[in-house]
Fold this sequence. Notes:
3 domains; 10% strand; 3-stranded antiparallel β-sheet; Heat Shock Protein 90; rod-shaped; 13 helices; alpha+beta; 67% helix; Helix Hairpins
Amino acid sequence: MGNSSLSNLYKIYQITGLDTLSIKKLTLLGFSLVALPLVLALLYSAAQINKLSNQSEDAIFNAAEFTETSKQLSELLVKMERYASQSIVLKNKELTNNYFIEEERLLTITNQHLIDHPDKNLKELSNQFLNEIMFINQLLSPENDQTLYLTQLQDQFKLLAKTYNRINQRSNEVIYNQAKEVKTSANLLRQTMLNSLLIIPITILIAVFFIIIITKPLKKLIAEIQQLEQGNFEHQIALKSSPEINEIVDALEVMRTRLHALELQKSSFIRHISHELKTPLAAIREGTELLYDNSVGALNPDQQEISDIIRTSVTRLQRLIEDLLDFNIVLDSTSLQDSEKLHVTPLIGSVINERKLDIKRKHIDLHTTFENITIYSNAKQLAVILDNLLSNAIKYSPENSRISLSTSLVAEQLKITITDEGMGLNEEVMNKVFDAFYQGPAPQGNEIKGSGLGLTIVKELLMRINGNISVTSKTQEPSGTTFTLILPRAFLVGTP
């Protein structure tokens, strides 16, 4: 289903007022609309099956009844003809009485099974059959003064036999027609069952419609939550949907407002406390420099050593405060709306140029492998991320070692890997490297100076530009650590 179809469905959802229903009522309505066509099809099929069953039952019963009636009539006609012929030849009244007894049985069977039959032709033939029997009765009646000859009686019975055969033939036609109707009904039922399969895609469409109208507000809600996750607290959450969704939206809006206020308080506190610390720190540093330079008088060796320690500590404290300020500024200035189309290779090249002196100082061999990739992202944020990772790799790399930096395109995502040949990180350290102010163990004979905020900044910025970072490390030879970045919305240069 295309985006336009989804939009049309959602418009119908809003126009009909379904968006004001609770999820419980909406689910119940959707289930009812999905089940209703299936129930109606089931009831209709059951009625048709019942009709077919009744038709089949009637056809079988009528066939058995016609067969039995035909058999009885045939036997009775044979007996009646024999008794009638013998009574004429032998002039025996008892034989005549036997004829009338069999004739009474034949009339009873005919009246029960044939004379009131719904089939018009069969009913007419039955009346003709009875009339012919009555005519034979008149011939055999004692009140008949005319001489009855055997040939005359036999001719009448031949006419009666012909009528019986026509009745039998019509009975077979009636049975055949009923069987044909059963077959037609069966074919109709089969076609109806096949047509009822069309209900399945209809019910699927109804189910898809209700899945869309239930999940679309949830997807919008997830998007709003992701905005909060990325630290975008300025965007007001305004989403109107079902009562349950509205309650969640109200709760999220309250949480967003509080988080925004806390974020502003935190930033303001860091700015103020950093400023308040820098002012006296500047005076301490200036005084320390005067003491260290012997501007206020010569110092003995012990005093000079203490002065040097104070000077170094003040310098490190000032760097920590500046890093803290930079950390706060970076987080405050991060905005997803600042995304732009930028080429990755020149950006990485500028980051490497800024770290050239550090690389030369440790005689590091920087090996790069770049693909010509373009990405939609924030240049400043991406540069800060790469600079922190490269700086981290340089700090933890021994002299005369190698750092590998590569870029590649994987499923429209930019993959950047930075690998050093340091001593590696154990599992406990890898779980903490992104924590604020945490620094891993320094290599032997190499003091690591820093605030411990570099990788925390990397993690925060990546979260805000929908990127991910992972770290793998080996502590055994050949040791080393690899940081892998994954950033979305990337493509090769020249790709539309």
